[in-house]
């Protein structure tokens, strides 16, 4: 019997959805799902097998089977594409209407339009985000906010280039079912953008550009490359038009940077150092391995600690060896209305971007329009009139596996203050996420899915490794965490009842015996 071939939308009707959920978009989603869906699931299972090997005493290293790719000096990635040659400052943020206009107008060279860390994959946000991108590219996004403020795109040619970050391979999109199966959120975000706004970008002489998150191996990059090949061929778009920058933000991927560039070489737009998910991945991957992999309080881990230096230096070296952009990461400090806090935030971002520019990065990320000018100034002081410094080879850098895994020498303590902060931030973030906001300011810092993952994973790791807090001398136990959860929730604005669902989700991902791979998975289950 021939299996039934169906494409079904189960999400609530969203105004104007037919403009982005077109027959062509849905057909491409279905084709990608049918041809690549099984491989995606196999690769997700391979992640689990690797963690099990590490739990049993294994480790990570550069792969022997791909040594020839690393040793072959002859290959390079494709030359930089129009609109993403000069990337000295990139702003990131969700794709709601206001943020779309503000980001495009911000003066940044690139806008990372986020369906991932800064986004809640509510069905309405998934669809409206795509509509906002389409309206932005058609320059029809003008609107007036409820407070009367009018938003319109700047009239000059200085709009940021749009680079879309689809969801990671792990997240399903439960509102679209192909042949009765839930599809990948990554493939939905990719296919809908490509067939609608992305195709308009091609007509305008730019391209459909992507940032690819949370990958753990070059085989996952190969899967993306195969999705690009299939989609370009299906839509009659010339091969190599799509470009993608890969976030190196997992510890296994840090050992496969060259292989990832190689897999995507005709579509590659370089690599980015996604520091927050990188830290999350270290905790997650080595969570059962005791003191050798125990990071101190989240806010004390800086980019100058040895393992972070090893990772960022290797990233610049790898990119420039292959003719690719190396893009820096996110300093989470955002402008504040309090003058002292504001001055401190700007000083921290200045130091961060200065180090990146001097290390050879070609540009970096900011979370807020107020930081665009500062980042531009710092990179311009190093780049001058050059659009990037890809030709600055870092052959002086030699990074070993031991250096990438040197977590133990990170200075700092695990304290009750750190535990309380993780609980407080984790619950506040989850409350925002469940309410539809994927990025929020908490205690003067930008918080998103990646930083919240660190918070809850540290609690899990400290609890399951019997850590004793340096300041109070108490051991981290389930009872202690539950007591601090009650105390911290009592300090939050509103009533404790407002946090009931966030609190329950937090406890599920922070103290349960079984470790949940991503907090967004159970949180997504709680969403209609
Ligand atoms: C680990 C990672 O992946 S990092 C990348 C993912 N994370 C992100 O992208 C976070 C992006 N940043 C943000 O979402 C926001 O800056 C927040 C939530 C942290 C703070 O936002 P707010 O509380 O609105 O800040 P604030 O009130 O200072 O904003 C001032 C103005 O700037 C706008 N703005 C702030 N950040 C952004 C942004 N990233 N993009 C576009 N506009 C922005 C606001 O919309 C607001 O506009 P308005 O004056 O027209 O109302
Ligand atoms: O996506 C970026 C990160 O730091 O995580
Ligand atoms: Mg990330």
UniProtKB/TrEMBL annotation:
Reaction equation(s) it catalyzes: glyoxylate + acetyl-CoA + H2O = (S)-malate + CoA + H(+)
Catalytic residue list: 165, 448
GO CC terms: cytoplasm
Pfam families (UniProt xref): MS_C, MS_N, MS_TIM-barrel
Record keywords, A-Z: Acyltransferase, Glyoxylate bypass, Transferase, Tricarboxylic acid cycle
Coiled coil, from the record: none
Domain Malate synthase N-terminal, chain residue ranges per copy: 7-67
Domain Malate synthase C-terminal: from-to ranges: 414-526
Family membership: Belongs to the malate synthase family.
PANTHER family, A to Z: MALATE SYNTHASE, MALATE SYNTHASE 1-RELATED
Designated name of the protein: Malate synthase
Provenance organism: Cellulomonas fimi
């Amino acid at each position: 019997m021939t299996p039934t071939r169906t494409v079904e939308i189960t999400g609530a009707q969203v105004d104007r959805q037919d403009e982005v959920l077109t027959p062509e978009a849905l057909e491409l989603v279905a084709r990608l799902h049918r041809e690549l869906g099984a491989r995606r699931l196999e690769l997700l299972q391979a992640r689990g097998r690797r963690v099990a090997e590490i739990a049993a005493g294994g480790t990570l290293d550069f792969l022997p089977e791909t040594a020839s790719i690393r040793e072959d000096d002859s290959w390079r990635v494709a030359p930089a594409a129009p609109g993403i040659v000069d990337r000295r400052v990139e702003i990131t943020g969700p794709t709601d209407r206001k943020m779309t206009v503000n980001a495009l107008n911000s003066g940044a060279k690139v806008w990372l339009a986020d369906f991932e860390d800064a986004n809640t994959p509510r069905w309405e946000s998934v669809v409206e985000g795509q509509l906002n991108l389409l309206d932005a590219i058609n320059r029809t996004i003008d609107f007036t906010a409820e407070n009367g403020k009018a938003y319109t795109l700047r009239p000059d040619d200085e709009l940021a280039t749009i680079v879309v970050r689809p969801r990671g391979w792990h997240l399903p999109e439960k509102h679209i079912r192909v042949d009765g199966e839930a599809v990948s959120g990554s493939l939905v975000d990719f296919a809908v953008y490509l067939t609608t706004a992305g195709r308009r970008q091609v007509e305008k002489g730019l391209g459909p550009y992507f940032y690819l998150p949370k990958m753990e191996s070059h085989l996952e990059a190969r899967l993306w490359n195969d999705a690009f090949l299939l989609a370009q061929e299906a839509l009659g778009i010339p091969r190599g038009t799509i470009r993608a920058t890969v976030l190196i933000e997992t510890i296994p991927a840090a050992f496969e940077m060259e292989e990832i560039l190689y897999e995507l070489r005709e579509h590659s737009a370089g690599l980015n150092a996604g520091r927050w998910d990188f830290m999350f991945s270290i905790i997650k991957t080595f969570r059962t391995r005791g003191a050798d992999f125990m990071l101190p309080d989240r806010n004390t881990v800086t980019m100058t600690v040895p393992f972070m230096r090893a990772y960022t230096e290797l990233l610049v070296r790898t990119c420039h060896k292959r003719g690719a952009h190396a893009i820096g990461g996110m300093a989470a400090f955002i402008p504040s209305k309090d003058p002292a806090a504001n001055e401190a935030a700007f000083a921290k971002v200045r130091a961060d971007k200065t180090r990146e520019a001097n290390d050879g990065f070609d540009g970096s990320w900011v979370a807020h329009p107020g930081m665009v000018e500062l980042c531009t100034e710092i990179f311009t002081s190093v780049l001058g009139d050059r659009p990037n410094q890809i030709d600055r080879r870092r052959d002086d850098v030699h990074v070993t596996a031991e250096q990438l895994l040197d977590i133990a020498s990170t200075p700092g303590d695990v304290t009750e203050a750190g535990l309380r902060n993780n609980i407080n931030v984790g619950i506040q973030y989850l409350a925002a996420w469940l309410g539809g906001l994927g990025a929020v300011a908490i205690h003067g810092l930008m918080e998103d899915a990646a930083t919240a993952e660190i918070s809850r994973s540290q609690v899990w790791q400290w609890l399951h490794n019997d850590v004793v807090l340096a300041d109070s001398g108490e051991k981290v136990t389930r009872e202690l965490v539950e007591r601090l959860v009650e105390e911290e929730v009592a300090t939050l604005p509103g009533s404790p009842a407002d946090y009931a669902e966030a609190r329950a989700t937090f406890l599920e991902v922070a103290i349960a015996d079984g470790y949940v791979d991503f907090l967004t998975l159970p949180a997504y289950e709680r969403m209609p």
